[in-house]
Amino acid sequence: MSDYAIDVGDILGEFRLLVAVSGILFGFLLNVAVFKGGEEASVQVFLTILALSFAAISVLIFLLPPVYHHSRSFPITQEEKRKLYFRSHQFALYGMLTLILTIYFSLVLAFYSLASWQSFILAAVILGVPASLFRLRRRL
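Request: output the structure for the sequence above.
Response:
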């Protein structure tokens, strides 16, 4: 990998967006949990706890690259840039996984009152369509 390909600002900018999206989703789920507490079935409470947990984990994972960047000495060397680059991609992969799980459980929670147990399948289908299109992008 050449030196010009590593731009710390671009890496941190991507995580700025991911933290914002995850944080908004976490805030929405927290709002639902606080204002609908006690009215839901035990399955809905469990789904809310799962979605909130994965949203919180997602926010924290997406915050790790900026924290890692600011914990290093300045000026940043090329070796530190390289380490930040590779570690950021690992954080992004784990963060995306938890964000996808957050969206899945949020969809299940949203459809549960309408479709009961079928909401698990419906949420999987909804997330499966973009995943399938992503995998087919090279063929189209």
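The helical segments are 8-35, 42-71, 78-115, 118-136.
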